[in-house]
């Protein structure tokens, strides 16, 4: 079940965030994420957060308007459509979604491409000095029934 973030979820999602970043970004010193842990923990309530909760939080997505500020899935639930379900929830709420992905994170790039995202720009992350890609997905909310569009 996808539901809105509750304060009780904070420790779990922060654990998923830290482990996920360290696993997905071996090209960045893990100390970088540890040093930013408290800042991110403080900023979490500023985003709109949705979690997949099936006997516990399996993953979460953070949105700041139409920007995906984070999408993380607990390691034991990856490749079980958790990320796909969280993206689907975000697509229900927005006509366009944007996300920045480190260029070396090829698994994330492939995942977002499978969800309809395209690379539209490249830049250098000033904090990590790593190249990152801006990916965008235009969401079509038109539902066609026969010849009618809703």
From TrEMBL:
Domain of life, per the record?
A: Bacteria
Any Pfam family matching the protein: Acetyltransf_7
What Gene3D superfamilies does its record include? 3.40.630.30
Q: Does the keyword Transferase apply?
A: yes
Q: Which CDD domains match?
A: NAT_SF
State whether keyword Nucleotidyltransferase applies.
no
**Classification via PANTHER family:** PEPTIDYL-LYSINE N-ACETYLTRANSFERASE YJAB (PTHR43800:SF1)
**What's the protein here called?**
GNAT family N-acetyltransferase
Source organism per UniProt? Frischella japonica
């Amino acid at each position: 079940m996808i539901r809105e973030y509750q304060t009780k979820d904070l420790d779990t999602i922060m654990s998923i965030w830290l482990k996920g970043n360290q696993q997905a970004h071996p090209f960045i010193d893990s100390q970088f994420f540890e040093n930013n842990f408290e800042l991110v923990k403080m900023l979490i309530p500023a985003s709109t957060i949705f979690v997949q909760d099936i006997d516990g939080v399996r993953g979460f997505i953070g949105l700041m308007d139409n920007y995906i500020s984070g999408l993380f899935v607990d390691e034991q639930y990856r490749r079980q459509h958790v990320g796909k379900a969280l993206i689907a929830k975000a697509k229900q709420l927005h006509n366009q979604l944007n996300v920045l992905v480190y260029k070396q994170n090829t698994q994330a790039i492939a995942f977002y491409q499978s969800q309809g995202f395209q690379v539209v720009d490249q830049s250098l992350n000033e904090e990590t000095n790593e190249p990152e890609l801006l990916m965008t997905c235009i969401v079509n909310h038109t539902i066609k029934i026969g010849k009618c569009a809703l």
